[in-house]
Amino acid sequence: MSHLTAATVVLSALLFAPSNASPALHARDWHSQSIAPFGFSSSTTASIPASSSTSTSSGCPAVWSTVATDLKSAFTGCNVLARNAIRFAFHDAAGYSSKTPYYAPATGGADGSLLLSSDEIKRQIEAPLQRYQPWLLGKYNKYHSQGVGAADLVQFAGNIGIRSCNGGPIVRTLVGRQDTSTAAPEGMLPEAFGQGSDYDTLVQLFLDKGFSATDLAALIGAHTVSQAFAEQGNGIPPGGPQDSTPTQWDTTYYKELQSDPRGVYHFQSDVNLGNQTTAVGMQMARFAQDEEAFDAAFADAMGRMNLLGISEEVSSGFADCTSLVQ
Asked: Which CATH class is domain 1-318?
């Protein structure tokens, strides 16, 4: 989960619609799978400016090829920027909950607010991302006039970040979201330690975002490339990894959550979810032995996270830029 309190961890990894919410949000029934430096102080919603660039054969605006090359160069070797990109994408999208009354454009979901809202990025839970945010904002300012939106850039960068890690899966990557500088509701992100890090709370939090036990087990697997930089108060030294191969996208995280080797540091939330008597823990145990299944489940869940709060009717009109992530 990219989640978690002030740990500069890579996400995430991490993750129904209320009667007054937009219909057909990207969600999946919990039981459908067995065991299964500056922002904008004002609150505005904006459409992406029309790009003057031509499009690729997939309909992806050509500017995104330039963006992809730029980000891939910056994220080489699954570095700190890449890992922050993954976490940042999770934190922006995970502001959505089916319990929040609908508001445009995505009810706090994948809307770029974490990049554009000076209020949201100042929250304590976002502290580890406060150096990455101005870096990405610079990229937004560089490409915005060519049709690149904040919400799209956040998720696009996250998917490039995943792929920059050796073995990282390809996540379906769409562009066309609307942006907003309205801060997402508070209390929507998972906690690594203390109150809110228990199993039931975490399960309900992700259920409210439309994610099943399998989805949650897969999303938390992004901790395979996670290192914590702000959890000293919880006994984790700066840079403490969540598995012994933090630049390799693999299933070592799941295995070492159980074997607990020296030099690897676990969040209490992960330990709680990894209890193999639970639905999530059973799936985590399965992924430990089946990397192909993990990659497929993660790519599916992350692809839906990229669209949290956006109806299928709207996203069906988005351009597919997945080929640029490969």
From this structure: mainly alpha
Complete DSSP assignment for 302-316: HHHHTTTT-BHHHHT
Dist CA 281 CA 326 (whole Å)? 31
The answer to whether residue 91 is catalytic is yes
Look up residue 55 and give its DSSP letter.
B
Which tokens is 236 given? 């984790």
| Measured distance CA(112)–CA(180) in Å, rounded | 6
Which residue in 3, 26, 31, 91 is the catalytic one? Answer: 91
What region does 165 belong to: left with phi over 0, alpha with psi -120 to 50, or beta?
beta
- Give me the tens of pLDDT residue by residue for the chain, a chain 326 residues long: 444 333 333 333 333 223 333 333 333 333 333 222 222 223 344 444 434 345 554 699 999 999 999 999 999 999 999 999 999 999 999 999 999 999 999 999 999 999 999 999 999 999 889 999 999 999 999 999 999 999 999 999 999 999 999 999 999 999 999 999 999 999 999 999 999 999 999 999 999 999 999 999 999 999 999 988 878 888 888 889 899 999 999 999 999 999 999 999 999 999 999 999 999 999 999 999 999 999 999 999 999 999 999 999 999 999 999 999 98
| 238: Cβ contacts below 8 Å, ≥ 6 apart | 228, 229, 230, 232
Q: Is 266 annotated as a binding residue?
A: no
Overall residue count recorded for the chain in this entry = 326
Q: What are the CA-CA distances from residue 311 to residues 43, 58, 244, 304 (Å)?
A: 22, 21, 39, 11
Say if residue 224 carries a ligand binding annotation: yes
Please tell me the distance from the alpha carbon of residue 38 to that of residue 137, in angstroms, as a whole number: 8
**Burial class of residue 318 (count of CB atoms within 10 Å of its CB; 0-12, 13-18, 19+):** middle
Is 119 annotated in a binding site? The answer is: no
